[in-house]
Specification:
Shape: elongated
Radius of gyration: 16 Å
Strand content: under 5%
Oligomer: single chain
Largest sheet: none
Number of domains: 1
Structural class: mainly alpha
Order of helices and strands: HHHHH
Length: about 130
Amino acid sequence: MNNNFNKLLLPAFILFVLITVLFVALPSLWDGYGINHIVVIFSNVILFALSAITLTMHFKAAKNPNPNVFSASVMGSTVIKLFVLGIATVVYLVIAGKEKSILAIVTGMILYVLYTIVDVKAALLLNKKQ
């Protein structure tokens, strides 16, 4: 399982590394566009951690003989990521006050879509293998 887990998590890890390097290496560029790079990095970390957690959910669901469990796992992971990112956004808006970066929030939502695509693809590959 560990080898399959690493293989299926690899695309999410590559996305994580690319986004992190992009926003750590060029912070003044992103801040110049009005995108708070720290908010995007935190969103990226949260989404990657949730991707790893939800992939373990998919592995557990794939072993269940009931196919509904697997589809519920995929849908549930998508909703979990959305709610956690929504809560993180509300916390950020409360903490940041007038210094908030709406473009950073939009970037985080774009990352949500990218991570969801990668996760669903990994889940489909896992389902095909099972």
